[in-house]
Amino acid sequence: MAETKREIERKYESDESGLPDLTGVAGVATVIDKGVAELDAVYYDTLDERLAAASITLRRRTGGSDAGWHLKFPVSSGVRDEIRAPLSDTLPDELAGLVRSRVRAAELVPLVRLLSTRAVSELLDADGRLLAEASVDAVVAERLTEAGRTAQWSEIEVELADEGDPAFLDKVEKKLRKAGVRPSDSPSKLARALQETAPKKGRKKDKTDRKTDRKTDRKKGLEAGAAAPGEPVTPGDHVLVYVRAQRDAIVELDPAVRRDVFDSVHSMRVATRRLRSTFKSFGKVLDRAVTDPIGEELKWLAGELGVDRDQEVLTERLTEALDGLPESLVTGPVHARLRAWSGKDGGTGPRSELIEALDGPRYLDLLESLDAVIADPPLLKAAHGDPEKVITKAVTKDFAKVAALVEEALAQPSGADRDLAMHEARKKTKRTRYAAEAAHALLGKPAKALVKDMKSLQSLLGDHQDSVMAREALRDLAHQAHAAPGESAFTYGLLYGREERRAELAEEALPGEWARISRDMPF
Fold this sequence. Notes:
Blueprint: E1 3-13, E2 30-45, H1 50-53, E3 57-62, E4 68-76, E5 79-85, H2 93-98, H3 100-103, E6 109-124, E7 130-143, E8 150-160, H4 167-178, H5 189-196, H6 207-223, H7 235-258, H8 264-281, H9 288-323, H10 334-342, H11 349-358, H12 361-375, H13 387-411, H14 416-443, H15 445-483, H16 490-520
Antiparallel strand pairs: 1-5, 1-8, 2-3, 2-6, 3-4, 4-5, 6-7, 7-8
């Protein structure tokens, strides 16, 4: 079984003089020499280094106190989450799954071997508590491909103790700098090894290479929100920046979803919706003959993600409502029945089905399709037109659809038809919000204002839809309770009535909210 550890560390350049005296660091009472360990780590990646490109490291290490498989994901500068699995001859399935969105069908191969002689010291406070571990590593790196190029260096590494204060590392660094030690230019040993053992490029770049470099530079500029010097920014450029960001979000969130990180399922689902909406909103920019089939696959993925998420949201809503009732109004085993209904009383449930979907070929094919659209976008004539005109037209067209659905909902009497109209308006509101998000870099404040208005409307319509779904669930629970010998359905009926009132309040608020949004429409 894999375990996760938050790793907070800093790396420094070192000569052969060893670790400077750190007893003068504020808070350090004792520095204990823990001896020398011989570490042997083989790093795995695809031949085109997909994991390294995402600052992800995967290694099999022997020696030291934590021998085994280690998979590290970046969190922020100097902070990584390390997932550890016991030592084995082959990569554990759990870790293989966590890199699948990056690796796809490519083979993971031994890429680099690092042999490190590590001299370890522990920094303790006056009570003997571990503050940090400082080590001096003499490293020999060997490229296991490309004819075995090698490199070697020495570095100092300071890793914060579990639950330690990151500010302590600032104090250590101050002491190290005074001793002439400087932060490393490389974020990790692997990054340095890959750089220093990279094969030499013997040939000059030809015309095709230079053209590819210009396209890459331009793409990087657009990702940062600006075009490369001298290059026009087209409607297609703006849309593709947004598409690329959502594709990246799906790929990056995949491991978090598999690890059941808080809110990861919801965030990944939102990215799929943003992508699907973008393909529809900007159908005059990207050919829908190409993007519609991808949109259907995104709908499928959102559905797989939604099984878990929808149940989670409903459970939270009903649990909160139940907890707010006086005990005298809770009759029967309501909490137990709600837990069983939510799937929290054991069993595999929706989550295992989601992981199975992420491990399947359909999902990986979808990721490949998204890559293909970004690499070779199906641009239409409007993709090369006037950016402000094309993007504004797409956004206002979406808003007009929202307007028609809201007006339809307001014209309906309260009941199933109005519920449906408000639900459809909510979906189009999301689509308009995402279109405005994509337009923000170009249109500025008007797009930002529209995003804010659509979020407000989406919240109101969403609360109404959540009430509709909650009432359906409460009816089911009440029927189950009614069928059980001696069990009362009273509490479910009480909660149902409260949900009806929440829906009524949303319906009463809609005319005023819509009048404000229509009046303030920035386009």
